Amino acid sequence: MEDDNLPAEPVSFASPATAHEQAEQVSDDRTPKMRAESISVFYGPKQAIKNVSINIHDDRVTAFIGPSGCGKSTFLRCLNRMNDTIPAARVTGLIELDGHDINAPDMDVVQLRARVGMVFQKPNPFPKSIFENVAYGPRIHGLANSKNELAEIVEKSLKRAGLWDEVKDRLNESGTALSGGQQQRLCIARAIAVDPEVILMDEPCSALDPIATAKIEELIHELRGRYAIAIVTHNMQQAARVSQRTAFFHLGELVEYGKTSEIFTNPREQRTQDYITGRYG
Ligand SMILES: Nc1ncnc2c1ncn2[C@@H]1O[C@H](COP(=O)(O)OP(=O)(O)OP(=O)(O)O)[C@@H](O)[C@H]1O
Ligand SMILES: [Mg+2]
């Protein structure tokens, strides 16, 4: 297995150039889907994120890169308040979704996490059937008025996640019986089923083989037109292939944020240059 922390070769921009070009035409002036301003995160006395501001846009994939422990997951978790579940964590600063403060008292956190879905590093299907894994969210959020409607949502989500053909004849089998790559697509189908607006992915391919990884990357391309996507990855080639914007974190700071093509070919900061050329990881 190659060490995907270190780029083995110069990052190529050969793959879908059109997607990059189209997304890069879109101006940063438009209203962002999510706006994070001056975010700091503390675990007890230790500061893990230092005054980070980033906008996340629709129709675009934003990659978070940086060495292990620099705070990528911590920052990602701020975007749907997953840090609330960590008692030691304290978040300061402002995060808006469509202009609304996600930490405001009137924000329903269950609703927020449906609107801002999350896919984790390790596929984590429920120990239930494939059908139930996807149906659970729409059911608790009351998105279906009948059994038929629920079945339609399940089918549509599995199709969108590129898994339908592989599972349509075994919807009653356990989700945990699928392969790792299939489980990850099931988790993506589960996130999609509640009709989210933003999808957060924390190293979604790190437990997968190259073929399963390619499938997820393809899927990210397809989903980009429909959702704002933020993805944490240690794989430089992956960041270059799937994203239009890249944020480089180091020691809790956002060192550089810009067009993916520029970050990888002509970074402004020495620290970014050092990281993308594999000098530290
Ligand atoms: N639950 C926690 N309690 C205390 N400290 C934490 C917790 N989670 C993360 N940290 C610390 O916060 C810092 C940032 O961690 P984080 O997991 O966000 O980094 P990361 O960039 O995602 O790293 P990796 O690439 O290894 O996943 C690290 O120093 C880590 O030890
Ligand atoms: Mg992490």
Can you give keywords for this protein?
281 residues, Rossmann fold, six-stranded mixed β-sheet, four-stranded antiparallel β-sheet, 11 helices, disordered N terminus, binds adenosine-5'-triphosphate
Task: Set down the secondary structure blueprint.
Layout: H1 17-25, E1 34-43, E2 46-56, E3 61-65, H2 72-78, E4 89-97, E5 100-101, H3 109-115, E6 116-119, H4 130-140, H5 147-160, H6 164-167, H7 180-193, E7 198-202, H8 210-224, E8 228-232, H9 236-242, E9 245-250, E10 253-259, H10 260-265, H11 270-276
Parallel strand pairs: 3-8, 3-9, 6-7, 7-8
Antiparallel strand pairs: 1-2, 1-4, 4-5, 9-10
Helix pairs in contact: 4-5, 4-7, 5-7, 7-8
The chain binds adenosine-5'-triphosphate and magnesium ion (MG).
Largest sheet: 6 strands, mixed
Spatial strand arrangement across the major sheet: 6-7-8-3-9-10
Overall mean pLDDT: 90
| DSSP strand content | 15-25%
Number of helices: 11
Parts with pLDDT < 50 across at least 5 consecutive residues: 1-21
How many strands?
10
The structure class reads alpha/beta
Our measurement of the CA-to-CA distance between the termini, rounded to an integer number of angstroms, reads: 17 Å
Level-1 CATH class name: Alpha Beta
Number of domains: 1
Helix fraction, binned, reads 25-40%
Radius of gyration: 19 Å
List each distinct ligand once.
adenosine-5'-triphosphate, magnesium ion
Task: Please write the string of helix (H) and strand (E) elements.
Answer: HEEEHEEHEHHHHEHEHEEHH
CATH hierarchy: architecture: 3-Layer(aba) Sandwich
What spatial form do the alpha-carbon principal axes imply? Answer: globular
> Could you say what the CATH topology is called?
Rossmann fold
In CATH, the homologous superfamily goes by the name P-loop containing nucleotide triphosphate hydrolases
GO molecular function: ATP binding; ATP hydrolysis activity; phosphate transmembrane transporter activity
Keywords: ATP-binding, Nucleotide-binding, Phosphate transport, Transport
Biased composition (Basic and acidic residues): 21-32
GO cellular component, one term: membrane
